Amino acid sequence: MTRRHARHIVFTVLVIAVFSAAAYALQETPTLQQITEVRIQAEEGDAAAQVTLGGWYFAGSGMPQDTDEGVRWWRQAAEQGHLPAQTGLAGRYLDGRGVAQDAAEAVRWYRMAAEQGDSEVLRWFQVTAEQGSVEAQLTLGGMYFAGRGVVRDEAAAAPWYRRAAEQGDAEALQWIRQMADQGLGAARVALGGMYFAGRGVPEDAVEAVRWYRMAAEQGDAEAQQILGGVYAAGRGVAQDAGEAVRWYRMAAEQGDAEAQLAFGTMYAAGRGVARDEVEAARWVRRAAEQGHASAQVKLGGMYEAGSGVLQDVAEAMVWYRLAARQRGGGEVEAWGGAEQGDAELAWLHREAGQGNAGAQQILGVMYTDGRVVARDEVEATRWYRRAAEQGDVMAQFSLGVAYAAGRGVAQDAGEAVAWYRRAAEQGHAVAQFTLGLSYDNGDGVAQNAGEAVVWYRRAAEQGDVMAQFTLGVAYADGRGVAQDEAEAVRWFRRAMAQPSLGGMYFADRGVAQDDVNTHMWLDLAAARSTGELQESVIRSRDTVAQWMTLNQIAEAQRLARESDAAPPREP
After folding, report:
1. In this structure, are 386 and 499 located in the same domain?
2. Torsion of Cα atoms, 451 then 401 then 6 then 60, to 10°
3. Are 394 and 361 in contact (CB under 8 A)?
């Protein structure tokens, strides 16, 4: 399990812990009569009673603690299709709590829950499959192919089967071949990709082209775009620029951004088609408007040079900036490399040197990420500062992050807060949330829970999920606001309703991952829960602790103690 995946699970546990804290706190130890009644119902096959009885055994509530007996009752409920029992049992097999650790058995129970439509478990499978789990990839392929727990979509099944097949799974390869033989374009594209790369099957460019052609002739845009590239490069076929243009055009007219960029590039070079800079710009723009970073940079270059469009340096800057903001790797190629990339970089430096804040901020991003240029945090901070002093909100927030982490500058929490505040006052939601955390923790500013809530609320009202969740915690604890369980639930529900739940929590959000605060929140959640839930929270906290130093753990524990000791504060 990777750190990012573990953080996803950590947050899920934490939400459940805080959201359920009141219920657990109010739960009384069952009486002998209650235990007797629930046991009778459980033995008669009532799944809810079986889950309740299992939970009492896990917690040692009203009876001696017995995890084996707890697992036995949960299993009976899970086999009847009781969704919480299935996910709870899966979690125990995943962690080895009360049962021998067994990832395959965990996946089996998670699969049953996902096939009932549990969205959180489905996200778990997607994250796990992305990380390379063959079992998860097969599960997703089967779910989409059969329409179990998701809308039936054979085209969505094919890429998951392909990933598993590329790792050597014979069952997945059999499914891919079967779907391809039945005429599914996505499966034919997948099989073509496997033959080209030699993953899961012997490398064979000719066979790859055969499968791509079948899909392309069915009208599959991705296959048409790939076939255009095949003819342009002469791989598996004789090189033929005219044929490349033909296939690129088909895919581009269907809206494939990669094909639109390639088609525009062919027009710009006069390759396979009469040279036409205006037509080149038209197709590159269509790709750029879909968010294709390479196309955005190319269009920026066209505006800079006046190629196919009227020369417009300001418009060039807009497109360069859009491309540069697509952080996270994989887009270095967008800058063209060699002569084109060097020219664009020189242009950005010239603009930045003349005071263009947008160019300055872009250079800051590039030096921070080591994209196009060698990574240099000092140089990144220098450009961020110049843009921030001109009011660029992204640069202001980035400069605050640099001061908080001591990247490229001496660490200075007070200076970090000053820059967070400037960005927050311009409406930057993540800066608002981060400023709230600073007030909550007294980091770089006097601790003030009421002021923290002010900033959490501003970010939450803009839709920042982490701010919504944190504001819910504030209402649940009466920290910085009058305690209000109904308001806490309202904010938790807003956070949990967000479609991005699970993918972004405790992950990179433009700021350094903060294990100390994560550990602190889990400590607080553990103190607010009991039994099985508390056990899960503690295990998640201990997972986070594996990435921390002893000093960081001690600091997290200190913050948790101080938070619990602090009296509720009025706003």
Report:
1. no
2. -30
3. yes
Q: Kindly tell me the burial class for residue 486, based on how many C-beta atoms sit within 10 Å of its own C-beta (0-12, 13-18, 19 or more).
A: exposed
**Residue 521's pLDDT band (boundaries 50, 70, 90)?**
low
- Model confidence at 540, in pLDDT bands (50, 70, 90)? low
**How many helices (H) and strands (E) would you count in the chain?**
30, 0
3-state secondary structure 503-555: CCCCCCCCCCCCHHHHHHHHHHHHHCCCHHHHHHHHHHHHHHHCCCCHHHHHH
**Are 383 and 364 within one domain?**
yes
Q: Which H or E run contains 374?
A: none
Assigned domain for 402 exists: yes
- Taking residues 343-365, what's their average pLDDT? 79
How many folded domains does the chain comprise?
2
* Domain stops at, among 426, 456, 476: 426
Q: What angle do CA 465, 470, 474 make, to 5 degrees?
A: 145
CA-wise closest residue to 309 among 285, 288, 345: 285
Taking alpha carbons only, the member of 249, 336, 327 closest to residue 301 is: 336
Q: Do 569 and 439 reside in the same domain of the chain?
A: yes
Look at residue 538 in the predicted model and tell me its pLDDT.
Answer: 65
Q: Has residue 193 been placed in a domain?
A: no
Phi/psi class of residue 238: alpha, beta or left (left: φ > 0; alpha: ψ in -120 to 50)?
Answer: beta
Q: Are residues 347 and 442 in the same domain?
A: no
**Residue 307: which domain range?**
291-426
Instruction: Give the pLDDT mean for 274-288.
Output: 93
B/e letters for 411-425, b = 16+ CB within 10 Å, e = fewer, are: eebebbbbbbbbbbe
**438 shares a domain with 561:** yes
64 inside domain = no
Residues 445 and 415 in one domain: no
488, amino acid identity? A
Count the neighbouring beta carbons within 10 Å of the beta carbon of residue 462.
15
Local confidence band at 318 (pLDDT 50, 70, 90 cut-offs): confident
Domain identity same for 471 and 570: yes
Which residue matches tokens 């079986």? Answer: 50
Contacts 24+ apart (CB under 8 A), 348-354: 348/320, 351/313, 351/317, 352/383, 352/386
Count of beta carbons in the 10 Å neighbourhood of residue 427 = 12
In the 8-state DSSP scheme, what is residue 426?
Answer: T
Residues 75 and 96: their CA atoms lie apart, in Å, by 15
Q: What is the mean pLDDT of the chain?
A: 79
Q: Which of 392, 426, 460 is the last residue of a domain?
A: 426
User: Over the stretch 392-442, which tens digit does the pLDDT of each residue have?
Assistant: 888 899 999 999 999 999 999 999 999 999 999 988 888 999 999 999 999
Q: What is the pTM of this model?
A: 0.51
Q: What is the pLDDT of residue 444?
A: 94
Residue 199, pLDDT > 80, answer yes
Sequence-distant (6+) residues with CB within 8 A of 238 are none
Residue 111 lies in a domain: no
Q: How do the residues of the chain divide into helix, strand and coil, expressed in percent and rounded to 5? A: 70, 0, 30
CATH code, domain carrying 478: 1.25.40.10
Amino acid at 409: V
Please report where in the chains the tokens 């179990």 appear, as a residue. 148
- Indicate if 474 and 503 belong to the same structural domain: yes
